[in-house]
Amino acid sequence: MLQGPRAHGWDNDLWTANRVAEILRRHFGLSFHPEHVRKILKRRLGWTSQKPQRRARQRDEDGIRRWQEVDFPRIARQARARDAHLVFLDESGFQMMPVVRRTLAPRGQTPVLVCDYRRDKISAISAITLTPARYLPDLAFRLLPAKENYTAVRVVEFLKELRRAMPRFTVIWDRSRIHGRAKVVKAYLAEHPEIVAEDLPAYAPEMNPGEMVWCWTKYGRLCNYAAPDAATLRSRVEAELETLQTQAYELLDFVDHTGLQLAA
Question: pTM of the full predicted structure?
């Protein structure tokens, strides 16, 4: 099994109880029910049920490793030499359709979550900030009115808000068209040399702790939450992000999750 399912003829490397049962039949001539196989995997082999991470085929693994081990330590050193904050910026959206996670119910009685099948959403932008000397964390965020999307102009407005709070900072973001490639963003950065922009490696969202802000909110605090309308959803998202602002240890965990070495 450690060879992976591809080695045995399947089209991906994800094991299921049915596939393991088929391996037992092929190699040992044994017939086991998939649920019994699942118990053996968990109790005897220490395997667990896990949600796979999605990764783009276009990823440059060597380039991502080089950014993590070489480029980011340089970025951190240069920011500290400038007495500048580090800022990890990211955008996301919260849909009216809730993120559904497993819950408890009597056997055979599948729970029902009543929700609106509407495309309304709340767009959000956030920035995890770290102080120059001690890397003390903070969280800044803004929410747009329902159905509006973040554009390069909106990103500049957020940078202006950050600049009012921090005299110098290095912003680290993905290679979205509304970031460093947008003309209005380039023009603003040219006018303000105290703001340095650095790109994350392509197709590597796990390098941005800002992604964990959305995971914590969407898949943790707001899972199975079906708001009655967009205004209520916006208020709830705002309340959860305000709660996260008070939890410095969570923000540091988000940074640690990336594997980035700030001490460098």
Answer: 0.87
